Amino acid sequence: MAGLASAGLAAAGLAAPHVAAASSREWSMIAMEHFPPYNHLKGGELVGLDIDILTDAARDLGITMRMLPLPWQRAILSFETGAADGLFQLTPTPRRIRHWHMTGPMRMTRLVFMVPAGSGLADIGGLGGLSGQVVGTVNGFTYGAAFDEARGFIREGSMDDETSLRKLLLGRASVILGGEANLVHAADRLRVRDRVRILPTPLAEQPRYAAFRRDPAGAGKAALLGTVLRQMTDDGRVDRILRRHRPG
């Protein structure tokens, strides 16, 4: 695993053409190692929607961003212990807001429920509709306080969305929860799009952030990236990147 992460770090440097306005010309950023379509390794290079957003941001800032892909729980631990400047693809939580500089949003994620095509579930009318269900989730992810704290159903944790989808098809989960783009990408990759369907009502639409540590260097980077992300949202660049990666 360490070899894969190091290869991804070397191959996925996002170079910008001019000198940084920030105090550092090079930022190291940690992300989940396999999170398509937002980031994933392809031919030894880290690619995806979030990589495209940060590539544009790095260019505007005149810096180089180097990406370190890691398993998610290890990614959080590595960031907290100082292995990199920042961490991205984060759902905001009270703890994260207290302890980190949360910067963004980078984009929005629509959290949806997916079921087998022949499921009797027509929709989830609030979390009470999950009563008695086995719900597939990804270990270490937060889905918002209401879901994270809810009871009355069984959580079936997996290492990633693709594994969660496999469990759904094997009957080990009756419904799975995830980002719409992630679940559709996983279904396309496994060639099972016709065997599953997304329920009409999403759980939520959530912003995704980058984080920096609460120290002077982290505060400076957070302010710089936040300004650029707002500009990219206002001028339509984030929307154009989203459309380019939108599943068919």
Question: Can you summarize this structure?
Answer:
The protein has 248 residues and is α/β, with parallel strands linked by helices. The chain has helices spanning 2-11, 49-61, 72-80, 94-99, 145-149, 161-170, 180-190, 216-234, 237-245; strands at 26-32, 40-42, 45-47, 64-70, 86-90, 100-116, 134-138, 154-158, 175-179, 196-198, 204-213.
Largest sheet: 9 strands, mixed
Mean pLDDT: 89
Number of individual domains: 2
Q: Determine Rg (CA atoms, Å).
A: 18 Å
Number of helices: 9
Structure notes:
With 248 residues, this protein is an alpha/beta fold. The chain has 2 domains: 2-108 and 207-245, D-Maltodextrin-Binding Protein, domain 2; 109-204, D-Maltodextrin-Binding Protein, domain 2, CATH 3.40.190.10. The chain is 37% helix and 28% strand. It is built from 9 helices and 11 strands. Strands 1, 4, 5, 6, 7, 8, 9, 10 and 11 form a 9-stranded mixed sheet that branches. Strand 2 (40-42) and strand 3 form a beta hairpin. Helix 2 crosses helix 8. The longest helix is centred in the C-terminal third of the chain and has 19 residues, at 216-234. The chain is globular, with a radius of gyration of 18 Å. The relative contact order is 0.19. Mean pLDDT is 89; it is low at 1-22.
Write the layout of secondary structure elements.
Elements: H1 2-11, E1 26-32, E2 40-42, E3 45-47, H2 49-61, E4 64-70, H3 72-80, E5 86-90, H4 94-99, E6 100-116, E7 134-138, H5 145-149, E8 154-158, H6 161-170, E9 175-179, H7 180-190, E10 196-198, E11 204-213, H8 216-234, H9 237-245
Parallel strand pairs: 1-4, 1-5, 7-8, 7-9
Antiparallel strand pairs: 2-3, 5-11, 6-9, 6-10, 6-11
Helix pairs in contact: 2-8
